[in-house]
Amino acid sequence: MSVIGVLPGGYWDAAGQLHREFELGTLTGHEEELLAKTRLPQTAVLVTEVLSRCLRRLGQLSPVPPEVISQLLVVDRHYLLLQLRLVTFGELVRGSLACPWADCGERVSIDFSIVDIPVEEPPHRAPTHSMTLPASWTGRPEAVEVAFRLPNGGDQEELSGLADINEAEALTLLLSRCIQRIGSDGPPDRDEVAALPGPARAGIEERMRHLAPKVELTMEAKCAECGRLFAAPFDIHGFFFGELRTDHELLYREVHYLAYHYHWSEQEIMAMTRSKRRTYIDVLADAIEVLNNGA
What is the pTM of this model? Predict the structure, then answer.
């Protein structure tokens, strides 16, 4: 089973060709085993690992190597995770969170469909973008042109640990990775980016946000207890990996159960999706119950 779709952004290869159409397969027991055993602190690394196993094709690229997955835009990776959840478990998402109002704090149920999540394509697609910073933003005698690319998965992998410790430093290093040149100079280092005046940095960051595709991961929720509305962020990484993590002992018991009764190999069973594996378990349990009742 697989899903075919189009990325909101897309991947630009070294020849300048844009790849957007993708084919994404569903998770199997092998990926469940990976998630059950792995406790990587860098979620972005785990995203790359899972997508590299499940992304069968991207444009004309097949197979899709992990280094390409790392170079996908952050929003494209979010979109692929949503599609992977869709093809694995269906479109309906059910969850809950605490009402954020201090005098309430009751649990609020959140139900929504993945297919209803708004996706906004970028106003302009290009491997790199440019903008002109006015002299008043930079403190230089004249305006200067800045060229930059949009943040990608590789940036997340490198900076995810730092972002939890020092968000300001992580943002500085992110800009130093994304900015290709300032004026006629080459890529700036960390100190050059840190030395940029506040208005220049803010202008670059805002331009990046404007040019990036968007997947809306914040929705409006209403507390049934206090009746107040609030913005509910959907943590795609936390929800996706939390939902998919399986106790590896349960996974192995399921493999043993099917192998014992059907005489299938471990490789054959682990290559199944979770839904297919558990469908066979349910069918087998019903058959055993019939036999026991007829004995």
Answer: 0.86
